[in-house]
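user: can you give me the structure for this one chain? tokens are fine.
assistant: on it. calling the predictor now.
[tool input]
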Amino acid sequence: MRWIVLALMALSTAAGAETPSLTGTYSGIVACDRTDDGRPGVFQLELTIRVLHDGTDLHLATWTPENEPLARHTPSLYAGKAVVADGRVSGYAQTCRPDFEYSETLRILPALAEDGGLSFAADTIFVTEALPGREGQLITESCRWVMTRQSAQTPEMETCD
């Protein structure tokens, strides 16, 4: 199993206010620079993330739309722990049951709670030599995710459990 480190930080909207729950469905854009077997490149795609945050348990599932060139037909799943203290959320997650072997580190920058919504940016590092159709080639990516919560309802999603 590969570890994914999540540094999730949520800011309270007012002194004494509850920390926003990370649970919900998010959508946004991922922009990446990539080295594909030594050749540099860039790409951008849409991404949907579903998050379950229950106490200290944290589960994430990511999807790309069917119209994206790099569409994934199965979600990437992550599980870990989160800690809420002083209006901030931090934690980690690791991949589980990937459809191909890869390593990815995810750091979510401070989340912003505004106008009843929640959004965040994240930096990631992704490494694989097992990308379907490119097996044996070293692929590395450095990405920036910009995500906005579309729904705060508890999403239906597969988890690592």
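assistant: here you go. Strands lie at 3-6, 24-36, 39-54, 57-63, 76-85, 88-96, 103-108, 112-114, 117-128, 139-151. The longest strand covers residues 39-54.
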